[in-house]
Amino acid sequence: MIPTLTIGDKVLLALLVCLVAGSFLAVGSFAIEGNTVLVQVDGRTVHKASLLENRIFPVSGAEGALTIEIREGRVAVTEAKCPNHVCIRTGWRSRGGDIIVCVPNKVVVRILAADKAGVRAITG
Amino acid sequence: MSAWTTRQITTLGLFSAVGISLFVVESFIPMPLPFLKIGLANVSSLLALMLFGMREMMLVMSVRVIVGSMLTGSLFGPGFLLAMAGGVGSALAMGGVKKAIPNVFGVVGISLIGSVTHVTVQFLFVLFFYVRTPAVFFLLPLLLTSALVGGVIVGWIAARLLPILKSMKIPR
User: Fold this and answer.
1) What is the ipTM of this complex?
2) Chain A positions in Cβ-Cβ contact with residue B140 (cut-off 8 Å)
3) What confidence tens digit (pLDDT) does each residue in B91-122 have?
4) Do A20 and B35 touch (CB under 8 A)?
5) Which of A35, A77, B43, B103 has the most other CB atoms within 10 Å of its CB?
6) Residue B105 located in a structural domain
7) Is position B124 within any domain?
8) Structural domain span for residue B156
9) Are B104 and A5 in contact (CB under 8 A)?
């Protein structure tokens, strides 16, 4: 029933399956691509910035100051006055829905999912 | 090489007719998204390639797209142009690969090359000439999946039919 597959066929099939799987992952990360960085301290929004503009700005947390940097479409906490620096270790984030949290400072850096220009424009 | 015998022309006509019929029938099968097709008509053009050559395959495919578009009412519409682009591109890829590295790929492999090329060419066409927004990239995984599935199915059918046709001594 199954036709004979040459070695080339099998290799091609394997490659294509990987390609397809990869395309799902790649598009998955874009589908919620964020373009806005929202910084909230203690639940209050203190800063709203575009992910596209390179910026470095300070944020006052409950225990001290943090430095947030937006560079090349990604955001990270680069300096923070907190004991464990988990926020800094979270590293650079760029996907919609990503969050960097500094618990002692009650700071949350969120990346908001893309708005109208994103998922809605699919045509048949 | 350029002139076909009457028998060859008749045979190619039959191949084209099969392609057209499959094309039209497949257009009636409902799919969640209109461009997700198995591409059954490619069985006939693939067989044309395996039994004859790239020129004959190109011929069968072109006739199928033109007449099929006439019958489904999309002649000279965007669908027609896309189908032609995809068809010609995939035919070039299939024929090219078969000629350049013979015996590396079997029927299923060639079919996969064709289906993926077909889908990719159409995608690029849509991206650059129609929608022009990167939003279409969201469709790429689905397109590629349908190309993968369709390519395997078409290749499988063609592979099963090939020995039967060969034993009928289809003239080359």
Assistant:
1) 0.79
2) 23, 27
3) 999 999 999 988 889 999 999 999 999 999 99
4) no
5) A77
6) yes
7) yes
8) 6-167
9) no
